[in-house]
């Protein structure tokens, strides 16, 4: 009897890389055959992926690798690259835009000034050419830049109404440089050319980054004997083939949060309500309506960049299970503060470095507490890492044998700044008390060194306030204080998101929210609560969210496998691709279809028929490249009219066709062609 075909879902989160094996022929949580976790290796994500894949295969037997028919990955790589200002250098050609128009998007933070080339060109709102391209100048400039960049982007004014200039420039640049070229009209059909230019430039910077990840994951799969198509989760929660994502990596920003929402919908069977994903660093909240998450109206915002990429609308706060505990008696919300920085929990660190106990004991034995006590630095740099900055190298060298107290790791202000730079690049991490340590003290985290957590909490509890009194009487008291802060802030954040989803400005109601959370009942009773259960996922959801939900006036739904919902979401999603065509009336009785093949007709009906046929062919081809199996097409027509002298005058309309379907699986039977690892039919 043949073994069932499996799907492998992988999520590279901020703390852990999760892997699940999923049976697509079974519905519900019974479809999850096995799950595993491995630490995320930020300097090289493929290492953590390999460890997670190896661990999940160990659960079912290595021979099952041959039965895996699809692999799908959600990744933080693109998001992190934009937030941290990483990515490879890319050249941008802009046609028809003024310097002021480009600068208002913050383009200078994405493209170095000497890699930006602005030229005449572009079209007007009806797709008419404003001025011709100087192809000779484009060729000369592209040739001069080719050795300094890894990719190019082209953006032309009103290219969504006529992409001819972007198409001509892209073809020319590819032919003379051999490098990838992103055209802005391929990423968004919406107006706002300067922001399309920014989005295209960011996409070009990410092409090499995502290509290396896809190649590394493909190598991991090959090493484990897995021959299956590789899919990637996009920011809107849909799946596309790795080859499709490789050309449009910008669309994978916020991939991880999107996968978590899709996984939660599947695991909890949610139709309406809020989904909360608590990770190590952040808590993300999404609003669900009619079984689908809300999508950002104005484009996803990552770091300082507002892109034109559609993504799941997520509200995020820097609050998670590994948020760093700060003691600040002078802060209005003190003395216990959390985040937004992430730290390695002491209860985890001591398991890897048992010698940490001796330093904790030394600090406990000190006659009085010190603000730096309980804080450590840990090297996470790969073996043999070389640094050109002398102070960075000196700080890293001190950490070569294991965790070092903060006061010993950095002794000057310059060294403190060097350590901060190392942390921003993922080569060094802070370690101190976190909510995970607090939970270990209380007994909620069994696989941890609770004794080490107890010691670091006792160290921090000894710090004194302005009256000379200690922050907390003992470690257990401080642990409860930390958890109270986490659950109180989380409940407040969830309620704010709910108010905003109801179009209620929470900024005018913060005092009422605070009173509600405090249980205010005097002359007035103040109570703000959620109207539906709160679905919570993430590794620590079961630890905190019954309490959070109660404070928000509801109950929590914490589905089975909530700790690997992101990886589940990576495989249960659908392939979704769409295209749009705008129809305008540049002159009375003339209806122009704005596509790669422009055409003008004498009636809206004929224009719409042409656009429908063109889009159906194009979107089916896109769906095939994206890896969809027998996609279904849906059409929407949005028409705008003007009321003149009692008559409706057609202004413009937008036809959108979406193709949606489950990804095709590779059933590896002798003599049967299927899907190759790149997700394309073989």
Features:
six-stranded mixed β-sheet, Rossmann fold, alpha/beta, single chain, 682 residues, 20 helices, globular
Task: Offer a quick outline of the entry.
By secondary structure, the chain is an alpha/beta fold. Helix content is 36%, strand content 23%.
Structure commentary:
The structure is a single chain. The chain has 682 residues and is α/β, with parallel strands linked by helices. The chain contains 20 helices and 29 strands. The strands form seven sheets. Strands 3-2-1-4-9-10 form a six-stranded mixed sheet. Strands 11, 12, 13, 16, 23 and 24 form a six-stranded mixed sheet that branches. Strands 27-26-25-29-28 form a five-stranded antiparallel sheet. α5 links the parallel β7 and β8. α4 packs across α5, α8 (255-268) crosses α19 (565-572) and α16 crosses α17 (510-517). The longest helix has 31 residues, at 193-223. It is globular. Mean pLDDT is 87; it is low at 667-682.
């Amino acid at each position: 009897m043949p073994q069932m075909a499996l799907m492998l879902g992988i999520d590279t989160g901020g703390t852990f890389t999760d892997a699940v094996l999923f049976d697509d022929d079974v519905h519900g949580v019974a479809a999850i055959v096995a799950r595993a976790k491995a630490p995320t290796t930020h300097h090289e994500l493929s290492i953590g992926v390999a460890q997670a894949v190896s661990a999940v295969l160990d659960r079912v037997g290595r021979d099952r690798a041959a039965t895996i028919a699809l692999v799908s990955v959600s990744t933080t790589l693109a998001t992190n690259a934009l937030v941290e200002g990483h990515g490879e250098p890319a050249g941008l050609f802009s046609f028809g835009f003024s310097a002021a128009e480009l600068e208002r998007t913050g383009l200078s933070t994405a493209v170095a000034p000497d890699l930006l080339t602005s030229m005449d060109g572009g079209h007007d709102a009806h797709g008419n050419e404003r001025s011709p391209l100087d192809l000779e100048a484009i060729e000369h400039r592209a040739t001069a830049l080719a050795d300094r960049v890894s990719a190019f982007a082209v953006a032309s004014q009103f290219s969504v109404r006529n992409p001819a200039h972007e198409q001509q420039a892209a073809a020319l640049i590819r032919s003379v440089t051999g490098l990838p070229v992103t055209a802005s009209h391929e990423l968004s059909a919406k107006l706002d050319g300067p922001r399309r230019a920014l989005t295209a430039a960011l996409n070009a910077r990410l092409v090499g980054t995502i290509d290396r990840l896809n190649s590394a994951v493909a190598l991991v799969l090959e090493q484990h004997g897995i021959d299956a198509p590789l899919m990637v989760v996009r920011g809107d929660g849909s799946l596309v083939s790795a080859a499709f994502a490789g050309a449009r990596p910008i669309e994978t920003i916020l991939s991880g949060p999107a996968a978590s929402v899709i996984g939660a919908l599947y695991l909890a069977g949610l139709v309406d309500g809020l989904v909360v994903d608590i990770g190590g660093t952040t808590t993300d909240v999404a609003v669900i309506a009619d079984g689908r998450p809300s999508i950002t109206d104005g484009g996803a915002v990552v770091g300082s960049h507002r892109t034109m990429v559609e993504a799941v609308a997520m509200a995020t706060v820097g609050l998670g299970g590994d948020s760093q505990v700060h003691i600040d008696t002078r802060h209005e919300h003190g003395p216990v503060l959390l985040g937004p920085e992430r730290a390695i929990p002491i209860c985890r660190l001591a398991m890897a470095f048992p010698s940490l106990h001796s330093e904790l004991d030394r600090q406990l034995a000190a006659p009085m507490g010190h603000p730096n006590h309980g804080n450590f630095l840990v090297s996470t740099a790969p073996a043999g890492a070389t640094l050109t900055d002398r102070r960075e190298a000196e700080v890293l060298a001190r950490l070569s044998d294991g965790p070092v107290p903060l006061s010993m790791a950095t002794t000057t202000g310059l060294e403190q700044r060097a350590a901060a730079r190392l942390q921003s690049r993922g080569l060094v991490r802070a370690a101190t008390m976190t909510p995970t340590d607090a939970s270990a003290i209380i007994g909620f985290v069994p696989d941890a060194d609770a004794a080490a957590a107890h010691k670091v909490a006792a160290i921090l509890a000894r710090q004194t306030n302005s009256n000379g009194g200690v922050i907390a009487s003992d470690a257990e008291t401080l642990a409860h204080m930390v958890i109270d802060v986490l659950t109180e802030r989380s409940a407040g954040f969830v309620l704010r998101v709910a108010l905003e989803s109801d179009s209620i400005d929470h900024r005018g109601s913060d005092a009422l929210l605070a009173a509600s959370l405090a249980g205010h009942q005097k002359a007035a009773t103040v109570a703000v609560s959620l109207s539906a259960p709160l679905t919570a996922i993430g590794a620590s959801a079961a630890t905190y969210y019954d309490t959070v939900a109660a404070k928000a006036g509801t109950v929590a739904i914490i589905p089975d496998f909530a700790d690997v919902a992101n990886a589940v979401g990576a495989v249960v999603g659908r392939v979704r691709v769409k295209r749009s065509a705008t129809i305008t009336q540049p002159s009375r009785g003339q209806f122009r279809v704005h596509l790669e093949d422009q055409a003008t007709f004498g009636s809206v009906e004929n224009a719409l028929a042409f656009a429908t046929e063109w889009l159906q062919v194009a979107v089916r081809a896109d769906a095939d490249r994206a890896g969809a199996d027998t996609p279904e097409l849906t059409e929407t027509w949005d028409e705008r009219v003007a009321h003149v002298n009692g008559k409706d005058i057609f202004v413009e309309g937008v036809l959108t066709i979406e193709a949606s379907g489950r990804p095709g699986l590779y059933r590896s039977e002798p003599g049967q062609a299927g899907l190759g690892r790149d997700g394309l039919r073989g």
